Model the fold of this input.
Amino acid sequence: MKPDDFSLLANLLKDQSGLVLTTDKVYLLESRLMPVARQYGMKSLEELAQAIRLKKDSRIVPAVVEAMTTNESLFFRDMKPFDQLKRLVLPTLMEKRQSTKRIRIWSAACSSGQEPYSIAMMLREEKATFGAWKIEMLATDLAQNMIDRAKEGVYSQFEVQRGLPITMLVKYFKQEGDKWRADPSLRENIQFRVYNLLHDLSPLGQFDVVFCRNVLIYFDQPTKGKVLEAIAKRMAPDGVLYLGGAETVLGISDKFQPIPGERGLYGLTAAVTAAKTAAAPTTPPINSAAGGR
Done:
């Protein structure tokens, strides 16, 4: 690929999605964008780049961005975050939300929907605990085709075998030929929506829990900081943020701090600091009778 074509595509992806591509990722461009080129009757990435320069078709840029930002997703990925949500996060929030009995969760960059569906299944399994509560979920992704797939809730045999326990597959999915369709009831409290993390997030409202796992790894440091800053503004003061196991806020943002003892779980700095202070052992007062003169 010509250097100027690579620069064009790399800059486009950075501006549109925050995705940072280095020259050693040319193979990724070729594997993901050649199908896009062929879809629009082109034989090479050079032709695709030229079509973008000349703005020949307004559909090409969104197709390029979607092809490059579609990431792998699994049901109950890593499992630990869902255990934390059930064991610690939701019970703690419920103690503080007794007056409203309402909790909002945001699954950012939800891809084809496995994460929000996993949360929905966990909530259904714990209906005795969470059933009386209104737990709403917003699931967003940059790619329209991923949101369309998530709304449809249809997955291949390969996809449902990745992380989804067989008991939940049988309970919450219906087989249709060689595909599996999620029970429509799982979508009752999920709103799927196309949204770009780099855009103004204020229209999304406030959240108690934000899942933004395995997203920041694709951004450069300034973009990571910008996204974390924007997410912090959309969180309740005592809300929590989930990041991927390989991600961190250290050296990137001072808006969040890790929640002690809970890998991948972060709170707003003020809340975490206050909790640490409250939990710290107090120094016993000096007993003047025993302490001498």
